[in-house]
Amino acid sequence: MRKIPLSSSHLGVQELTFITKAINNNELTKGENLEGFEADLELYLKEDRYVAALSSGTAAIHLALLQLGVTLNDEVICQTFTFCGSSNPIAYQGATPVFVDSEPETWNMCPNHLETAIKDRISKGVKPKAIIIVHLYGMPSKIDELLEVAAKYKIPVVEDAAEALGSTYKGRQCGTFGDFSILSFNGNKIITTSGGGAMVCNTEEDKKQTIFYATQARDNAPHYEHSKIGYNYRMSNISAGIGRGQMEVLDKHIGLRRDMNAFYVNLFKGIKGVEVQKQPNSDFYSNFWLSCILIHKDAPFTKAQFQSAMEAANIETRPLWKPMHMQPVFEGALYFGDKLSEALFNKGLCLPSGSNLEQKDLDRITKVVKDLL
Ligand SMILES: *Cc1c(COP(=O)(O)O)cnc(C)c1O
Question: What span, in angstroms and rounded, lies between the C-alpha atoms of 215 and 314?
């Protein structure tokens, strides 16, 4: 039996055309795919944003923090319920993370806990340098409330939309709300460039500066002149070619992921104690990159039973992200919240959510659930 994966890349038909052209023109590193992919993303996101394509989403967060002036011993607030790509760049800059827990409706950063954290840090004489908000699993966070708190204390926001390309909040694309916003095109994301990411900037100047830092910070001189430390973070023209092809199928694939979510809502309908993650109201439009469930105490099966039944049928499931404040590498880090993310981690699972699953895959998943009952 074929393994049913959580989320795998799903190619369209044009990727090969874009790559082949780059190879035929001997433009592997720079070239028209790079500019073309950035233009595609700018068109898609709207709001007059400027996009710089980079080697990963993590690299984008790193350059966002760098450009916001985050440096040694600064504090940066970060959603604790996330993937390490959100928080590791804080450490790259020698800064200290302050983790903030989630609220139950979107599973993303709680505006109240955020304000508590900011007030506490200011009262100790350290004003946080930046706030990293995340739209986990594609679900938009409570953006208005979070931005209001950030604005009240005049702290810039890095918006981690790595999982949320195509999700919208009050009709506006995720990835357009931050002082800097980031996207990821890693192999398991909603679209892929094999590996890659992007910085979404509010000004052309920010985009230029992002590319400057992503290409080893070369000053304007005939020789190699450097007055800043730079990084090798630019996306290649080959990767961007895959991205251009993927942009053509993005909306279709979002539709299919949303269909997967509807499939789970239907599958678990009427099963007490099993809760499928849902959009709080019509302000929140999720790409449902991954469909997630919580298995509560009153469910007819335990999380472990469900996991092992799925595993026996060669169907992948995965626990929700383990919160960063619980990770050994961030032991002792400051944390504000009421442990909601810990409860989500204990009860939750991600289910196969790919846009390329077939009816026979859905039938296999259905059978596991029916057999368990
Ligand atoms: C994937 C991901 C990243 C990092 O992206 P990469 O391209 O893998 O470096 C950051 N944050 C979140 C929430 C992610 O899911």
Answer: 43
Closest atom of ligand 1 to CA, residue 185:
7
CATH superfamily of 251-372: Aspartate Aminotransferase, domain 1 (3.90.1150.10)
From 6, 109, 160, 318, the mutation candidate for ligand 1 (largest count of ligand atoms within 8 A of CB) is 160
State the burial class of residue 109 (Cβ atoms within 10 Å of its Cβ: 0-12, 13-18, 19+).
buried
Which of 56, 80, 83, 350 to mutate for ligand 1's pocket (most ligand atoms within 8 Å of CB)? 83
- List, for residues 110-130, the tens digit of each pLDDT value: 999 999 999 999 999 999 999
Nearest atom in ligand 1 to the alpha carbon of residue 59 is 9
Give me the pLDDT at residue 87, please.
98
pLDDT for the residue numbered 277: 98
The domain segmentation of the chain, as residue ranges, is: 14-248, 251-372
Structure tokens at 172: 């506006």
For 14-248, which CATH class? alpha beta
- What does pTM read for this prediction? 0.98
- Give the contacts of 370 (CB within 8 A, at least 6 positions apart): none
For the chain, residues with pLDDT lower than 70 are: none
User: Are 14-248 and 251-372 in the same CATH fold?
Assistant: no
